[in-house]
Write a structure and sequence with these properties.
Chain lengths: 338, 175
């Protein structure tokens, strides 16, 4: 286990960041409450001032640990994840909140020593707690709306860092991709995606090709492509785990047969879309049925709009039509291995 | 009326499940009280720290007045045949033990503990016992979320359905 996965809490089966965050949220609240009591009391309740100082000190010390684990968790959120902006906003609230409370602890120390810092201390605690409440709410949404860190402890592999777009259609970022871009399509409906080496046993990738968002996975040596979204609550299957020939959703543990897409374990009841895959020259290709026809249709429509002649590209390549007629299938990845 | 209360307790008005948001308070108060007690036993803080720990235990108990009903409302959302149902039951049983220990502890703290310069050993022991059960119970609660997915995507399902539909996914008919 690396430092990163340990800080994520994977060895404990529970993310560390939300666990640690309980202490600062509660102790800062106690500090704020005691500040109010101290300022409101007629006889300058010394015990409450000292108590607030200790509560804020404990809360802020744990907050520093929470901050480290939080930053570590942030690194794991996919670049185009719908919750990423929320995570950033959560951080923008919580980092200043922690800094305010650290200053607040110092001010409380002065207050304990007899300085007249009551109003200042109360103002700092209040401002800090408002930030912490907003940040805490956003942090909760990361879990309950976006499922961040849910089911993550079951994974031994890294989460997909970005969606891989079909290399010929998009400017690719990863170094290995140009090889995939140069690789010609196996047949008209096939799209070269990534080198086989990008997908070791048990790994998953998130791919977008021709508008389809897919999870690409290698299980028992074979490469499978299924729709990315679980049919229960649309959880991200590319962040799930492989169990034999099944893929398991990280959110509510629905399992699907990778070959057929059928659910093998609830709560999902509807099958996933599955896609044919093949490997040629070490490049994984995915077949999108009807893609060639769709593309030709789009091009024809565009050509018509431009007033040009139609039929620049034949949707049905005659070569592929012949091989289909002979019943030939492209080689499956499993038999392609040397 | 019953539905409105349940909806409130589930946090639908907040767009966030209420129980896991509020549990920060008792968990932090009781863990914080234990840290303060230990500091007190090392001679730190004097009566101020003893009183603060007492207030912390009390504040945690006060929060259970809403945390417990919210937790029970969450429990009724889990189907009996799911593993999370039994986990929730254990979570509840352990939490009842913690609350009873904290009540016993706070009685001592409010009594002879209030003016003491150091936390009474009996109050410390009761809190310590509670804080031995609390992390186990909290862990089970956390596993319900992070391993079983209880409460996940409950409020965001429409949004995620739109994302999945845009990604040309096969989806069940909308209910």
């Amino acid at each position: 286990m690396s430092v990163k996965t340990t800080l994520e809490g994977r060895p404990f089966g529970h993310p560390l960041h939300p666990l640690l965050s309980h202490v600062p949220l509660g102790m800062w609240l106690l500090g704020l409450g005691l500040d109010v009591a101290a300022v409101a009391s007629a006889d300058r309740a010394d015990w409450a001032i000292r108590g607030a100082y200790y509560a804020l000190l404990i809360g802020s010390a744990i907050a520093i640990l929470a901050l480290l684990t939080g930053l570590n968790d942030f690194l794991d959120i996919r670049g185009d994840h719908p919750g990423r902006g929320n995570a950033l906003f959560h951080m923008v609230m919580m980092v200043p909140a922690t800094l305010l409370f650290i200053v607040d602890v110092v001010v409380h120390y002065g207050w304990v020593q007899g300085g007249e810092f009551g109003a200042f201390a109360l103002a700092l605690s209040s401002a800090g707690y408002v930030l912490a409440l907003i940040g805490g709410y956003l942090g909760g949404l990361l879990v309950y709306d976006h499922g961040i860190a849910v089911g993550r402890h079951r994974r031994s592999k890294e989460l997909p860092q970005n969606t891989i777009h079909e290399p010929r259609a998009a400017a690719a970022e990863a170094e290995e991709i140009p090889a995939a871009r140069a690789e010609p399509a196996l047949r008209p409906e096939f799209f070269p995606i990534v080198p086989e080496s990008a997908l070791p046993e048990g790994a998953t990738l998130r791919v977008e090709v021709e508008g389809y968002v897919l999870a690409l996975a290698r299980a028992q040596g074979k490469i499978y492509a299924v729709q990315e979204f679980c049919t229960h609550r649309c959880g991200p299957l590319s962040e799930g785990t492989i169990h034999g020939g099944n893929i398991r959703c990280p959110w509510h543990n629905s399992c699907f047969d990778l070959t057929t897409g059928e659910p093998t374990h609830g709560p999902a009841k509807v099958a996933l879309k599955t896609f044919e895959t093949a490997v040629r020259n070490g490049i994984v290709q995915i077949r999108i049925p009807g893609a060639a026809a769709e593309r030709a249709e789009t091009e024809r429509a565009e050509a018509e709009r431009a007033g040009g002649p139609m039929g620049r590209r034949n949707p049905r390549d005659p070569e592929s039509a012949r091989s289909e007629a002979r019943g030939e299938q492209p080689r499956r990845s499993a038999s392609d291995k040397p | 009326m019953a539905n409105a209360i349940k909806s409130f307790l589930l946090g639908r008005w907040l767009g966030h499940p209420l129980h896991p948001a509020l549990v920060h308070v008792p968990i932090a108060m009781w863990v914080g009280a234990l840290i303060m007690d230990i500091l007190s036993l090392f001679g730190v803080g004097g009566n101020a720290l003893v009183r603060t720990a007492c207030v912390a235990v009390l504040a945690g108990l006060a929060s259970t007045l809403i945390v417990v009903p919210a937790g029970i409302a969450e429990w009724t959302q889990i189907r009996r045949e799911k593993p999370a149902w039994m986990m929730a039951l254990w979570h509840m049983v352990m939490n009842v033990c913690v609350v009873l220990l904290m009540i016993a502890s706070v009685i001592v703290r409010l009594g002879r503990g209030w003016h003491a310069a150091q936390v009474p050993l009996i109050a410390f022991t009761l809190t310590l016992l509670g804080d031995l059960v609390l992390p186990v119970s909290g862990y089970v609660g956390g596993r319900m979320v992070y391993d079983q997915g209880i409460g996940i995507a409950r409020m965001s399902k429409k949004r995620y359905r739109r994302i999945a539909a845009a990604g040309r996914a096969n989806l069940p008919p909308q209910t």
